[in-house]
Amino acid sequence: MLPYQSLTEPFSEEAYLKRWLELERKVASEGFTWATLYENYEDNQYMSDSLLRVPASLVQEVENASRAVYDILAKTYQRILADHSLIHRLGISVYVWDLLLAEVKTAFSYFCRFDFIASADGLKVIEANTDTPVGLVEAAVAQEVICREHGARNPNAGLTKKLAEAWNQVIKDYQIGSGDTLYFTCADWHEEDKQTVGLLMKHYPQKARYIPLEEIVVEKDDVRTPNGEKIEFLYRLYPLDYFLAEKSHTGELIGEQFLVHLLDSKLKIINPPSALLMQSKAVFALIWEKRHEWYSRSEQRAIDTYFLPTFHTANGMSSYVKKPVLGREGGGIQIVENGAVLDEDVDHYQDQEVIYQHYFPMPEQTVATWDGPYTGKLLIGSHVLNGQPAGLFFRVGEAITGNLSMFVAYTDS
User: Fold this and answer.
1) Cα–Cα dist 275/238, whole Å
2) Tens of pLDDT, residues 161-190
3) pLDDT over 70 for what percent of the chain?
4) Residue limits of the Glutathionylspermidine synthase pre-ATP-grasp-like domain (predicted)?
5) Cis peptide bond N-terminal to 315, omega within 30
6) Which DSSP category does 140 fall into?
7) What does DSSP assign to residue 10?
8) Do the strands 320-324 and 334-337 form a parallel or antiparallel pair, or are they unpaired?
9) Cα–Cα–Cα angle for 118, 305, 295, nearest 5°?
10) CA 228, CA 230: separation in Å to the nearest integer?
11) CA-to-CA distance for 199 and 142, rounded, in angstroms?
12) The pLDDT of residue 6 is above 70
């Protein structure tokens, strides 16, 4: 895969910044406002103005793989519901087990993002973000602007249509009436989450209202807004397991009461609780263990093709990636190759159970940045809405794909 513009010309910081700042202004005007991220006491570039040329055959293969991975996860979810003892192996807090194992008449998740590595050795899925995936604004908004700037086709042009289709399915499955309000929430201080919620709201076809997470009132009998309106339907861009630690304005823990209301169906949330169940990276170990027992021959071929050997112990592997089962943004990950630690994060999620996934190296990709050409590791995110592939989200960063890995748009050729 090659950057659309040449990186062989002499680099001029002044010329680059002038071009990049104009692009930043354009994407911000359409809703993508975090082209830079402030972290480690400095501004970091998050958006490259490069445009990758990606073979159409690879785009199609990622779409095919995304369908297969979603279907395998859906089948695995049904297997877990049929044998509740399996939840012991997923590393999820016991306080939410009853909620996660309550069978619901919905998809296990309507909004997913799968992360793939593509190399000469094949295409492999390394994570499933089924609970609170982000990257939609990049894939739907910034992608369109950057393609337009380069005069290139945008392969993600159909993403917002599929977003609307997913909402129509949610309305049907949740039986949301035309007079009902779907509330949308996230931490109000979090710019990325707030703009993502804004995009989701924009394409929801019925009554919608934003409520900051900090303003949700959890009472003994139900959940309400500060003005007393009852909340019956809630889209939350906030991990379900995080609610356990939430406190009221008086300092009282309210997460348990919130979960009780979910169990009693006084409140219905999107994504559903099952999305957290399938977010556990230990699900991949379960799929690998049961690949010859639970799945059809075609599903077994898909697992052998797209999944990596994954276990609860290192299992004699000399090259692996150790991951906390509910870690996010690369936190707590350790990469080991031939017995040597290549990279690791020891600051986050050290108290979680872990899985060990066969190490599959990411390919290198060079993109333009305000410091000159940068060569990093390429990861492909694939958004799946209501079970259907909806658009790709490319990032280039370090060996551990963290919060500062750089977004780069693409076109197909």
Assistant:
1) 12
2) 999 999 999 999 999 999 999 999 999 999
3) 97
4) 24-409
5) no
6) I
7) P
8) antiparallel
9) 140
10) 6
11) 12
12) no
Question: Alpha-carbon distance 268 to 89, whole Å?
Answer: 26
Torsion angle of C-alpha atoms 33, 35, 39, 42, degrees rounded to 10:
-110
The pTM (predicted TM-score) of the whole model is 0.95
Question: β-strands 208-210, 182-185: how paired?
Answer: parallel
Contacts of 245-248 with CB under 8 Å at 24 or more apart are 246/218, 248/217, 248/218
Q: Residue 321: helix, strand or coil by DSSP?
A: strand
Q: For residue 295, give the amino acid letter.
A: Y
Residue the block writes with tokens 């990411």: 362
Angle, CA of 273, 276 and 281, to the nearest 5°: 155
CB 128 within 8 A of CB 69: yes
The residue to which tokens 């710019």 are assigned: 191
Q: Which residue has the higher pLDDT, 412 or 7?
A: 412
User: Which residue, among 72, 89, 58, 107, has the nearest Cα to 412 in the 3D structure?
Assistant: 58
What is the enclosing helix (H) or strand (E) of 100?
helix 97-100
Q: What is the pLDDT of residue 404?
A: 86
Is residue 203 packed enough to be buried (19+ CB in 10 Å), middle (13-18) or exposed (0-12)? middle
List all residues 6 or more positions away from 242 whose beta carbon is below 8 Å from its beta carbon: none
Length of the chain equals 413
CA–CA separation, 211 and 202 (whole Å): 15
Residue 129 to residue 112: CA distance in whole angstroms: 6
Tell me, what amino acid is at 194? K
The three-class DSSP label of residue 267 is coil
Q: Taking Cα atoms as reference points, which of 242, 251, 279 lies closest to residue 95?
A: 242
Pairing assessment for the beta strands 354-358 and 364-367 based on DSSP bridges: unpaired
